[in-house]
Design goal:
This protein is mostly helical. It has two domains: 3-80, Winged helix-like DNA-binding domain superfamily/Winged helix DNA-binding domain (Arc Repressor Mutant, subunit A, Orthogonal Bundle); 85-227, Four Helix Bundle (Hemerythrin (Met), subunit A) (Up-down Bundle), CATH 1.20.120.530. It is built from ten helices and five strands, in the order H-H-E-H-H-E-E-H-H-H-H-H-H-E-E. Strands 1-3-2 form a three-stranded antiparallel β-sheet. The longest helix is centred in the C-terminal third of the chain and has 28 residues, at 155-182. Mean pLDDT is 81; it is low at 1-13 and 216-231.
Length: 231
């Protein structure tokens, strides 16, 4: 019996199931780049499109706000979260700092260091690229970098790093969509393969070089133009 079917016996459980379904659907749309930062989310349209009432929708939007994916604007409703140019520059700076710290903490890798998570992320990225699933590509990209930072064995560091990536992923999703228009999708896979090879070789300087060249520093501004954050 499915979760939704089973939950029909219990009103509270049913509501929770609908909330979870709404969260997953909206999160997928946001992180796949289907909706842009700043785009307004109209409750009436969403309830009709998702086939749910306002109560579970509002709870789903509240949870998405906690994740930093949407924001409530006084007297204007809910919109996909936005970041200022300064926000993006600062987040990139924090991300780079955390990655450098993790690399310096773990490399060269010990022989018993498990790199299966990094390899699995590259495999997932390769498969998702083949079928053109942009969300799975973005998730594999995030997983790879989280696995890299996790090698340092510092849970607090990994938690902070994941929260930074989640905020940046709003813009990374758009970058992936724009990149697909001007470059071969497999280019992103090759970048991660080179980075993985550098990690396996255990050379911190080479990994730092690959990381510096790895991430596209161009992102889409709210006015539709592009900007390259200061490095």
């Amino acid at each position: 019996m499915s979760d939704v079917a089973a939950s029909s016996v219990d009103g509270e459980l049913e509501s929770l199931s609908l909330v979870e379904l709404a969260v997953r659907r909206l999160r997928r749309e946001i992180l796949s780049g289907k909706t842009d930062p700043g785009e307004r989310l109209v409750e009436e349209h969403l309830t009709r499109r998702l086939g749910i009432s306002r109560a579970p929708l509002r709870e789903a939007l509240r949870l998405l706000a906690e994740q930093g994916l949407v924001e409530h604007v006084p007297r204007r409703g809910v919109r996909v979260a936005t970041l200022s140019d300064r926000d993006v520059q600062e987040l990139y700076a924090v991300r780079d700092l955390l990655e450098r710290h993790a690399v310096e903490s773990v490399l060269p890798v010990r022989r018993d260091t498990a790199l299966g998570g990094l390899r699995a992320a590259v495999d997932q990225m390769r498969l998702a690229t083949t079928v053109g699933d942009r969300l799975r590509v973005a998730e594999a990209h995030r997983r790879f970098h989280v696995e890299l930072v996790a090698l340092a064995g510092n849970r607090q560091l990994t938690g902070v790093y994941e929260s930074v990536l989640l905020k940046l992923q709003l813009y990374m999703a758009i970058n992936l969509r724009r990149e697909a228009e001007v470059a071969q999708p497999v280019d992103g896979v090759h970048r991660h393969e080179r980075l993985l090879a550098a990690i396996e070789a255990g050379n911190p300087a080479e990994v730092h070089r690959e990381l510096a060249e790895h991430g596209a520093r161009t992102y889409r501004r709210s006015d539709g133009s592009s900007r390259t954050p200061d490095t």
